[in-house]
Amino acid sequence: MITTAVFDTKPYDRDHLQPAAVSGNIEWRFLEFRLTHDTVPTAKGAQAVCVFVNDQLDRACLAALADQGVKLVALRCTGFNNVDLVAAKELKLAVTRVPVYSPYAVAEHAVALLLTLNRKVHRAFNRVRELNFALNGLVGFDLHGKTAGIVGTGKIGRIVAQILRGFGMKVLASDPFPNAEWAGQHGVEYVTPAALAGRSDVVSLHLPLTPETKYLIRRETLDLMKPGAILINVSRGALIDTTALIEALKSGHLGGVALDVYEEEEGIFFEDLSGQVLQDDELARLLTFPNVLITAHQAFLTREALADIARTTVANLVALDGGRPFVEGSVLT
Asked: Which of the following is catalytic: 158, 199, 236, 311?
């Protein structure tokens, strides 16, 4: 029996983790708050903790977990920028992630954001509910014949590119490790980041957050983008410098922004704050722009993706309990 403390739990986590563990000997301890150094004591007696993107696994938190006898940190996500991997290795804590889950979930959400923002579906929906059937201010543009720039051509970026090619868009791509064979098959052209920014009507980000990619989109990058271009981010919030983004929106240089992630989303996204005053001034400012669309980190939220995440997470927990190897590709330390 392996006791697992699951932090930042939502109903959909329970609904998928429990059925996935029917053949495993796992005792679940579901906790609705995030894991931080202050909340580590609630994991007492657990051999593993299961965490998500906004849990704070810094050195102090990891050391406290190790002191309590925790052996495994199982991330139920792909990104791991919130974990101090150097400290985890020193503390002999195993850290695993979900290396692959339905890439279609995130890719399709990116395209949904693009379509909604461009054709102002969200604004039209609100108008019609108030019996306002006027069309003023709802003009968009045809995607067909326009140019999309895909920054990062991993699984998700490639799927977005292929979907947009289906719309009849020309697709440019930028990646430190270009996939020439795939690009040739799908009519995608690899270019430099500067060329992509300058030629694209739509720019979509599909990169992990690393020290090299933090603030990839900043004032200088935004200045290179075509006037009126749309920017999409379904990856990690800190790929974009929010202060510079707001300035580009205020100046009218950007045509629109659609975000499923935000650099300071911790404590905001995944929570119901409808009865409170929003304390984040930059997010509050973004929400005032008519050409900004924000969803609360829900790109992964499909039945298929949640089932994939649960299967990999449970398999790693069961592997720890049985002394077997973790799922291939999931081991970080």
From this structure: 236
